Amino acid sequence: MKIKLSKKLLITFLLLSFAVIFTTGLMSNLIVDREFNKYLQENNKNNINKLVGIITNSYNKLDTNEIQSIAASEKFYVEIEDISGKTVYTTGKQYLQNKRYNMNMMKGRMPGNSFNSGDYIEESYHIESNGTKVGKIIVGYFGIYNFSEKDVIFKKALYKSFMISMGIAIIIAVIISIVISKQLTKPLSIINKKSLEIRKGNFKEREDIKTSTLEIKELSDSINYLAESLDKQDALRKRLTSDMAHEIRTPLTILQNSMEAMMDGVISMDRDKIESCYEEVIRINKLVDNLKNIASLEESSLNLNKTNFDIKEELERICQDFQPYFRKKNINFINEIKESRQVLLDKDKFRQIINNLLSNAYRYSNQNGEVQLLEDINDNNIIIKVTDNGIGLSEEELPLIFERFYRSDKSRDRETGGAGIGLTITKALVEAHGGKIEAESRLNQGSCFTVILPLE
Ligand code: ADP
Questions:
Q1: How many Å lie between the centroid of ligand 1 and the Cα of residue 90?
Q2: Model confidence over 353-376: pLDDT tens digits?
Q3: Which of 358, 401, 416, 447 is the best mutation target for the ligand 1 pocket, counting ligand atoms within 8 Å of the beta carbon and taking the most?
Q4: I need a labelling partner for 24 at 20 to 30 A (CA). Which of 139, 168, 181, 392 fits?
Q5: What does the pLDDT average to over 207-221?
């Protein structure tokens, strides 16, 4: 059976608080009650001692008024006998009877037996004069604590206040439990709703959850991040489909039109026309190749074949291959290859990385622009920077350039022949070597790509 988290939390909080309230309430009640009884018992003993003292001191000339008043206030039965056992004075048992009567009346309204007046107790004390026994005092009372009515009223008030405070504590505990369980579960149910929306394909909504619980905040951020990534992926996927359709349709339409024109005899079927059709077929083929490349990246079939080679030599060779292209566009190509060092990398893949970056720098540079290749090696890494002052990228476009088939609007306007997968492949190759690639760019000002490859 599945129980809602809010219910589970509520039940747990309530059980915990009830257990704490009952135990502390009962314990404090018991402790206070015990201490109060102790005090009463001592008080009773003191009163008896006081009475015995008075009687002993005035045995020859008894002050019966004082004895009477103590017996009346403490509800004692007092009897004094002489040496022969003859009663010389008694208070009579009227105080005891009154007390029993009153106590029985009150007991009916008290809980448990804590207010029981107890059994009748009689204690006797010798009266001595000059070291010889001259008589006996008998003191009688109810119960070892000899509760007075005031004591009972005090105990009753104490018990009542414990009950009331326990009741208030329970009400507060219930309110706090409801509030806390709601507070904890509300953001979770919002997150849950949000994930259901994502499941339905609605990635647009973002939820800014106000919570002081770190884990819930992190979960909410992760869900928002997930929605954002899925949103971007969704947009990219849609863009990719239309891009691919466009990329394939253009050469196909050219082919179809040229062939129709040739069949209709509108244009002659000479070598030039056939060559131009052939170029379109090659373009389609290239596109299919690119798709294959991407598929192999996804299968993570990036097996590295590492060999030792001199990085400076290899970079200079690549730069030489690019020189004619840069010259064609009158681009000032600055090469700052500083250090000659034997490195252990997959040479072909390294070449592909640099080729892709230089080819982008060339394609996205303007006529008479400037491209720079910089190499630097520190204790741990090889750092290669390819910088250009070409068309650049906007802030929104920059994070997307490593995505498959992504092409910025500006690059789309240009006839660069790109399909938006060069950087995806470059990034995969760099990461396969345990390195990373970073890009900085400003629209219309240029871009800088930094590749960091570990030496080990
Ligand atoms: P493409 O084959 O389209 O160049 P890439 O994956 O190499 O594909 O690049 C993806 C996109 O990144 C390009 O279409 C372009 O918009 C942008 N880009 C890459 N390099 C540069 C650069 N040096 N300057 C400006 N934009 C660039």
A1: 120
A2: 999 999 999 999 999 999 999 999
A3: 401
A4: 181
A5: 86
pTM metric for this prediction: 0.50
Nearest residue (CA) to ligand 1, atom 21: 360
The more confident residue out of 296 and 387 is: 387
Closest by Cα among 51, 101, 54, 56 to 77: 51
381 Cα to the center of ligand 1, angstroms:
25
Lowest mean pLDDT among 27-31, 111-115, 215-219: 111-115
Protein residues with CB under 6 Å of any ligand 1 atom: 360-361, 364, 388, 390-393, 401, 406-408, 411, 418-424, 447
Atom of ligand 1 nearest to the CA of 391: 25
Q: Which domains does the chain have, with CATH numbers?
A: 5-171 (3.30.450.20), 214-295 (1.10.287), 300-454 (3.30.565.10)
- Is residue 121 within 8 Å of residue 148, measured between CB atoms? no
User: Could you tell me the distance, in angstroms and rounded to a whole number, from the CA of residue 406 to the centre of ligand 1?
Assistant: 8
- Is pLDDT larger for residue 302 or for residue 380? 380
What's the pLDDT band for 73 if we cut at 50, 70, 90? confident
Q: Are 112 and 29 in contact (CB under 8 A)?
A: no
User: Which residue puts its alpha carbon closest to atom 4 of ligand 1?
Assistant: 418
CB-based burial, 194-218: b 16+ in 10 Å, e otherwise: beebbeeeebeeeeebebeeeebee
Pairing of strands 370-377, 332-337: parallel
Place of tokens 């890494």: 381
Whether the predicted pLDDT of 113 surpasses 60: no
- Residue among 119, 121, 116 at smallest CA distance from 37: 116
